[in-house]
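User: Hello! My lab partner asked me to get a predicted holo structure for this protein. The small molecule is zinc ion, SMILES included with the sequence. Please write out the structure tokens.
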Amino acid sequence: LFEITILGSSGAIPAYGRYPSCQFIQVANKYFLIDCGEGAQMQMSRFQVPFHKIQRIFISHLHGDHVLGLMGLLFSMHLQKRSADLHLHAFKGLDEIIIAHLKYSHSALNFTIVFHTTQEGTMETIFEDDTITVETIPLYHRIACSGFLIKEKPKPRRINKNKLPPTILLQQIIALKEGRDILDDAGNIIYKNDALTLPPPPSLSYAYCSDTAFNLEIAKQIEGVNLLYHEATFMQEEKKKALETFHSTTADAAHIAIQSNAKALLIGHFSARYRDLDLVLKETQEIFPNTSLAIEGQTFKIEA
Ligand SMILES: [Zn+2]
Ligand SMILES: [Zn+2]
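Assistant: Hello! Below are the structure tokens for the protein in complex with zinc ion.
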């Protein structure tokens, strides 16, 4: 299972019922939040997102529309008697903000926040376990900003049950899944791997890129991504405004999708000037047809 639920899709100012940036990610048995704009916890209860399950929060940058929901969420986790550690990945400074807030409200959380400092301007792997990696994507914004690339690791080969000899041993099946041939004591091949196995299921990936000016370096890092979320704050007629504010247009997002060979594109971080998003979607689809709008409450399943 690899799913993205949109909790916020608005740019700097919440508008027309749209909330600032926040996404809930479920991948296998892991639960992540990316960005935590104002109202994030209200959106979580509205869409029945199990926020007590969140293990890690990844914050792209310290602009308010990406972090102002965090303190509220932390206090609610505290009131719900959370005891598990919460891992927080962000640029330096967010730790100081949280500490100051706790200090002046005379509060002590009953769980530990493990703060991981994101490095500026360089790609790094910030989380890894048996099944996935999370790496930062350097973005191009007015302050230090990074996206996140969540990638499944290569999966084991699948056993072709129709071809399996009845005498095969369990440890031989394990070896086959790892891609090895089965040898006898003399080192001769008894079973050739590709005769008994099928290729592994594809490893899926998700890239989150917000906020950023257009930059092709992003496309290089996320080559072949299954689902790309790229901000599209403005339509093309506001290209000048996008350049000035280090944001992207619909066409910028679409071109990053093309250049990275993304299978699908999700756009968001919409400017408050657009009440209706139909034209925003249409303009992007003219360049990259397989585009969807990030709409609050919608869940996008990542599939091969
Ligand atoms: Zn923003
Ligand atoms: Zn920003």
